[in-house]
Predict the 3D structure of the following.
Amino acid sequence: MKNFSPFVIPFTVGLIILLAACCIKWVRWYRHFTPVQKSQIRKNLISVNLIRALVESVNECLLHHRVFRRNLMLGYMHGSIALGWFLLIVTGAVEAGLEVHGDRHVWVAVFLRYFVHDPEAVCPYAGIFAQVMDSLLLVVLSGVSLAFVKSVYHKVVGMRKVTRHTAFDLFAKYSLWFIFPMRLAAESATASLYPNGGWLTDAVGSLFSVETARLMELPLWGLYSFSLGLFFASMPFSRYMHIFTEVPVIFFRRLGVRETDRRSGYTMYELSACSRCGICIDDCPLNRDLDHKTVQPVYFLRDIRYKRPQLETAEDCLMCGRCQVECPVGLDLISIRRQMRDRGTLDTAGTYDYLEKVKPFNAIGRVGYFGGCMSHLTPGITESMKKIFDAAGQKYWYMDENGSVCCGRPLYQQGFSVQAAELRRKNTRLIKDSGVKILITSCPICYQSFTKEYRLEGVKVMHHSEYIAGLIASGRIVVTRGDESITYHDPCELGRGCGIYDEPRKVLEASGRLLKTGQEREKSLCCGHNLGNTLISFEEQGKIRDSALSNLTAPAPDIIATGCPMCKKALGTGNDLKIMDIAEVVARRLIFS
Amino acid sequence: MPEFGFSISKGRTIDFDLLDSARTAALEGDDSGLIKCMDCGTCTATCSAGAFSDFSIRKIHTMFRRGQYDGVAEALSKCMLCGKCTLVCPRSVNLRHAIIRMRQTLRTSVPDDDDLRHYLNVL
Ligand code: SF4
Ligand code: SF4
Ligand code: SF4
Ligand code: SF4
């Protein structure tokens, strides 16, 4: 056979294993998509979303845009290896297409320099190709060197902690690292014998004497092929499966596929799309403040993927969503966590019959107000809301004045989806039967539940900050602007959960001097009391709260404001700072005409 | 005992021989801190479920702590897990955690000793 040497076998075998395993996994997972997910894909297949997905794939999988935004060096490390290698493959294939005619086996492009000794004779651009390929190789090598430095000194890429990998992942990583120096060595050995090198391979090749080069050429190509083969064969079973899963995940997501309450084929894609980059570790409050080392998504997803899920890991998470905004792959980490909390037979139906006696109220012509369970513990908020309604001349129905039927989200987050659905049904009936067109709630947990988990067609659900911002903007209430300085704490459920960042700030700016804090908006810190976690103790919650407080008190404000009764309670315990809800801040400054 | 002029109501007697505290023991060492409870009843006073029914979380977890499991699992399933009780407890008992753990511990089997049933009405 022309253009063959036995050393290409390890590479070819590795490639076959890789492709076969990927195809089997892809097909198997796809078959486990729910009918809804599949119909989403069919419905959106021919649309502009496809182009968006393509752009996102290039941005994230090759350029690593989100990683760059987090840290330049880290972005360079990921980007140089991914993009550099991708371009090496593409350019190599093009070059092989121009220089090799007939017998163009799959390995020829990979080991081109070994097979084509005098490229200038067959292709006028061979010289340019050689220079470009050498430069690309250097880019990849610089990324690999950076990865090596990172493994010893994490701070160089801005990470405090890096992933503790399994032995198999380490094995795959080292075989990846080995590939590029071997390629350089092999191509340099050949370049010192034949005129087919670029600037880099020529330079390294000049270090070889002709005898050494002759002796070493074949073994070096063999090592290069061997490391490629090892890496390829380990890819589908290691973290590197993300290379072949991230792109489909981006496409599925853009086509409208979402996680469901139970694990589906899409979850399998997401599990494998995690690159175990470890970016989710540093900002997790459980890691930062409590040193819980095994619960972050990187480990949690790995445990599920390798079929040894731990209930403790599934439960020990605040569901604050901080990891999710950091994850460069954009995985739906909260939903996967929730799926794993499935309570099975504990999740019983028909346990809320006692709520039958809560009867609907005819509230046509009024707005509905749902304080939420927690607001009963913070009467300042509900009283302020009453004042605001009165000032605006708005008739309202305080739906849960005599006790709240919980919105169901606390149960839902803990994996009791049947029980949660029952509470949702009850509240939905109460709301719909009342005839309200607008429902205002003071609790971001309820707000997220009403907007995402309920089907309240015809009813506009608002967080009280949105409602108050609207009242101020339309002049229905007037507030005097005080000169007290305020910092604002973004509740997880309202900010990261529902994307409401601006309305609370508008309201606060109308009432006082709003100061900036170091970590705000989607980077805000959890108060430690998110209902997502049932495991951590009061003392532990306190440590997380203290971190959040030190961020809020750093600009030395007169008032710390927030938009959640739970956060207000949490931030207010164990200190005598002035913590107020937005509604309270506004109610103090109302002008009655 | 008539000569003393009073009697002990049968219903209030707790016969320790009839109690099986195996499941309570299973919760020991768990970090919910239920063991710190001083039975003050603040949790019941604030309870969302208690606002609509005779559901009393203090009564239920007290029964559990005593090893009287009859009816406890069923009662616990009425909780809405809203977390108010946990927030108000003066002893920082992590009640939401305890409620889930109690339900898990009781899942496999519940003592079906009818003799213990009446304690539900006593506490
Ligand atoms: S979950 Fe996201 S951030 Fe965490 S290791 Fe995986 S890819 Fe990285
Ligand atoms: S949701 Fe919050 S607590 Fe849970 S793993 Fe992510 S950052 Fe950590
Ligand atoms: S509030 Fe706490 S201490 Fe009081 S009865 Fe309830 S659990 Fe026990
Ligand atoms: S969590 Fe359950 S027991 Fe506690 S207050 Fe809410 S409904 Fe009551």
